[in-house]
Amino acid sequence: MSRIGVFICHCGENISRTVDVERVAAQVGNMPGVAFATDYKYMCSDPGQTLLKKTIQEQKLSHVVVAACSPRMHEKTFRKAVESAGLNPFLCEMANIREHCSWVHENREEATVKAIEIVGMMVERVKKNRVLPAITVPVTKRSLVIGGGIAGIQAALDIADCGHEVILVEREPSIGGHMAQLSETFPTLDCSQCIMTPKMVDVANHPKIKLYTFSEIELVEGYIGNFQVTIKKKARSVDEDTCTGCGVCMTKCPQKKIPNKFDQNIGMRTAIYVPFPQAVPNTPVIDRDNCTWFKSGKCGVCQKVCGPGAVDFEQQDRLIVEAVGAIVVATGFDLYTIDEKPKGSPIKGYGEFGHGKIPDVIDGMTFERLASASGPTGGRILRPSDGKEPKQIVFIQCIGSRAREKGISYCSKVCCMYTAKHTMLYHHKVHDGQAYVFFMDARTPGKSYDEFWRRSIEEEEAVYIRGMVSRLYQKGDKIVVMGSDIAVGVQVEIEADMVVLATAVMPQKGADTLAQKLGISYDKYHFYSEAHAKLRPVECATAGIYLAGACQGPKDIPETVSQASAAAAKVMTLFSKDKMEREPIVARVREAGCVGCFACKKVCAYGAVEEKEIRDRQGNLIKVVAYVNPGVCGGCGTCQATCPSKSVELDGYTDEQIVAMIEAL
Amino acid sequence: MHTDKPKHAFEPKIIAFVCTWCTYAGADLAGTSRMQYPANVRVLKFPCTGRIDPVFILKAFQQGADGVLVSGCHPGDCHYIAGNFHARRRFAAFRKLLEFVGVDLDRLQFSWVSAAEGGKWVEVVTDLTEKVRAMGPMTEFKELALEEQWSGAITTPELKEAYNSI
Amino acid sequence: MKKLLNYAYYPGCSLHASAGEYDLSTRELFKALKIGLTEVPDWFCCGATPAHNVDELLSLSLCAKNLELAEKVEGDLAVACAACFSRLKFTQHTLEENATKRKQVEKAIDAPVKLDGKVKHLLEILAGDLGLERLAASVNKPLAGLKVACYYGCLLTRPTDVPNLDCTEAPTIMERVIEAVGAETVAWSHRLECCGANFTLSRPGVVIQLTNAILDSAKAAGADCIMVGCPLCHGNLDIRQKEIEGVYKTNYNLPVFYLTQLVGLSVGLGSGKLGLDAMIVSPMPLLKEKGLL
């Protein structure tokens, strides 16, 4: 038999003005199971809480109901008080007779009757409440950062500087990401390489950072504080420990005409290569698809010339397992291409621009490589087709972005600014050239951003034409750009030497596959989803996984760096304790009843449901049942309402408790 | 300051199943804003509408509720990512069943009330109360319950025989 | 003789007037390909360009009534004129999407709207229903060595949101059809540009400028002739060509064929059955040079 104590609060006069609290206490006192009922002026006050604690001990109460304000207000207060009196905090419930009763009704009789019923419901509920022990989860204080662009680098450095070990995984042979490709950065025009490469070196030299380049995530298992990550380290064909980075192999490699992806395929590289001179690590990779040795078994020049003997044609892909407690995803972005899109893709190509068939129609990133002092043209703006300097250049914004009919409705955020930058760089390098920009709107929010954009027009003489381009076509060695100037209301035709398209920022290819490995959610464009758009913008809904940079949505460098540091701060918060405590409102499976249909697994937004094998003593498999990982469970209870055999229960909200409340009516 | 409210012959009993993050908070807001609404509603708090088993709705009707309200976060705002979508889907199917069973669907209402919509909560509760009041008491389930309830009395010869043989 | 395919045929006003050769060549070509073509009884104007600019309900009703009439004839509805095709497709699409408009139209035409029948342009029939392989197999006189600039104009592939016969921005259906009968096609820039359409009457200056750009681009790409599927485009490119040559002091001499005329040539139909004599820019010297006549 339970001994329930009920405490009715007057809340000054807030409750007692409309609810006859004495009558409530008297009525409730007669309910079965209630051992004690009283009313008090201010339950949440210090004397009120003392009364509560004292009564629990004197009356040997088994459960407590506090009828007062909303549990959203004081549930924590009273559960804490109950705990200090020696009871499990989850044996205390609140009946909301203020927000849901005294404040919203004027008729004293009606309000009192309602208050009695509300308290009665909670009395019936609390009888069924169970002792819920706090759940603690151990935390492995190492973290994984996926992606070695500026976001990943910043997050890794911040976490490592705090003294925690970081595993940084990068898909390409070098870290640096897209920022390393940029020429100069807005709004200050400082050289990207100059500000980026020191950070890359810091990563390489940091004692707490373990760097895996040319590596990919193969498998992620576990949950917050306890992830096991399998990393595939692809065969580099060069031993990283032995290689000194002298580069002789690259100068001797006979395959010299392979388009370099880092230079947007306008520059060439050898088959054994580092993507760019400042690469970290400065260890070359053999591109096996293009290497003569791997294709025909002949050549092997690089091996012959390598002094330390680092070239290893026999090297194999390796799988490495690392244990980490937190994961920062910083996989960044890719650019929309205007080539014909595969059938069935919701995103369409730009047929009106020739599907990318005109060689002097390039994208913004290619222009960056042309403008970069370390790029394939040494920083001179030259046409890819014939190497001539373009005297008339047209920039077209919003290619793919804000184009619902092309399948992308969002704004890519950085293009207005980088196009303004491009017009400046062009003007600095081609003094007698003229830049035109077709734009829909100039979106330049950000510190010193609008001033920068104005400068491109007012000082650098870029001609901005508000309107979009309908068609591009090659005419001789010119590209005819047909567009409209909606400000003046006329059709515009420009015979350009080169056209630069500000193509949309999109997630990396394979972002969806990685998300599935991690168990995080993503939107229809495959940008990763944060747990809350406003208040939890760097956390995934999946506990222990955090987001940094453009993998979540288009971002510029300052924003990316801020978010990376924020993600690092979240990781450090998690690492500040050896064990993580969480509210024990989690789902539990009754294994005897579970038939293993895994309907719960399908509806679980947290990926908390696992498959568990039940075996007899001989080790024979009896059945496979669901298991809810308490570290991962979000506590929504959707699994319970879905379970056809009623074999999973959400602690604190069991069917018994709910039905008891309904039956009390 | 008490105004005389019209007395009604029938006061319906309304049960509201709400999620804690949006609608419960919205109802709290109605309270802190001192809005007034009929005292007929009793609120049951759930973490998420996704937790609400349709059986609870049946149970509420069985227990004498004249109207049931289910309310949670707006689609896309779920604190638990997608619980309200599962709820929406579940209840869309469940309505058909209720209709088949013979419950007037006007007695069951679904709505989305956010934590900022105290006014909407008042509106939803008031409208449902008045609608159900006009419909009169829900008797079908009560009658059914009476019919099916086994009184415990040993009335038939078969039962008597069985009882005696123990 | 057993027909392979059967269609209801909606010629449209132009084909009974200025584009008589399109009508003639269509009928003859389909006869040669053993495709049945039954003219929709009592058909009338689709409303063309003016109706929908003046009164949406009128434009939808005209097409809806024609669609209803077409239901009485067996087979999908074959349409030759690009404008009729566009209006009929647009009406089908609008009435499928919008129940209110559908009700209004049903009241106006005093009959239920029928949207089940498919509206097909001749190109779709040749490339799709008949198929390029069967089309190629019917060729007696391949158009070898003839360089064709395929001109789509506006209405065959637009508007974007109405289902039409090919990609709006980069269609290939004309090229596929004419290459199947042995011709060469040229890649050129102006195949989707507007010719000025019915400004030809009210503001001919506009048409002369726009059409000149099209002819210029086709000539520059090395085309021998232009192929069209729209009577209005044909009018502008063919009838106005001499005038344009005068204004711009140039010489294009580009015969403008309807697609059915060129395909008709390839299956062995003679000049008389294709109405080649009705063309203003005579194709005879070109066809003789290429050995196609």
Architecture overview:
The complex is a heterotrimer of chains A (665), B (166) and C (293). Helix content of chain A is 27%, strand content 25%. Chain A contains 18 helices and 34 strands. A five-stranded parallel beta sheet of chain A has the order 10-7-6-18-29. Chain A has a five-stranded parallel beta sheet with strand order 20-27-21-22-23. Chain A is elongated, with a radius of gyration of 32 Å. The radius of gyration of chain B is 20 Å and the shape is globular. By secondary structure, chain B is α/β, with parallel strands linked by helices. Chain B has a single domain, classed as 3-Layer(aba) Sandwich (Rossmann fold). Chain B is built from six helices and four strands. With 293 residues, chain C is α/β, with parallel strands linked by helices. Chain C has two domains: 117 residues, Glutathione S-transferase Yfyf (Class Pi), Chain A, domain 2, CATH 1.20.1050.140; 151 residues, Rossmann fold, CATH 3.40.50.11810. In chain C, the strands form two sheets. A four-stranded parallel beta sheet of chain C has the order 2-1-3-4. Chain C is globular. Chain C starts with a strand and ends with a helix. Classes of the chains: A alpha/beta (665), B alpha/beta (166), C alpha/beta (293). Chains in contact: A-B, A-C. The interface between A and B is large, with 45 and 47 residues.
The count of DSSP E runs of length 2 or more, i.e. the number of strands of chain A, is 34
Count of DSSP helices of chain B?
6
Secondary-structure content class of chain A:
alpha/beta
CATH architecture of the largest domain in chain A: 3-Layer(bba) Sandwich
The gross shape of chain A turns out to be elongated
**What would you report as the Rg of chain A, rounded to the nearest angstrom?**
32 Å
User: What ranges of chain A have pLDDT less than 50 throughout 5 or more consecutive residues?
Assistant: none
Distance between the termini of chain A: 21 Å
Instruction: State the strand order across the main sheet of chain A.
Output: 10-7-6-18-29
Number of helices of chain A: 18
CATH architecture of chain B: 3-Layer(aba) Sandwich
Query: Looking across the biggest beta sheet of chain B, what order are the strands in?
Result: 2-1-3-4
Q: What proportion strand of chain A?
A: 15-25%
Helix fraction of chain B, binned, reads 40-55%
CATH topology of chain B: Rossmann fold
Largest sheet composition of chain B: 4 strands, parallel
- Secondary structure class of chain B reads alpha/beta
Number of domains of chain B: 1
Query: In angstroms, what is the radius of gyration of chain B?
Result: 20 Å
Averaged pLDDT of chain B: 86
Chain-averaged pLDDT of chain A: 94
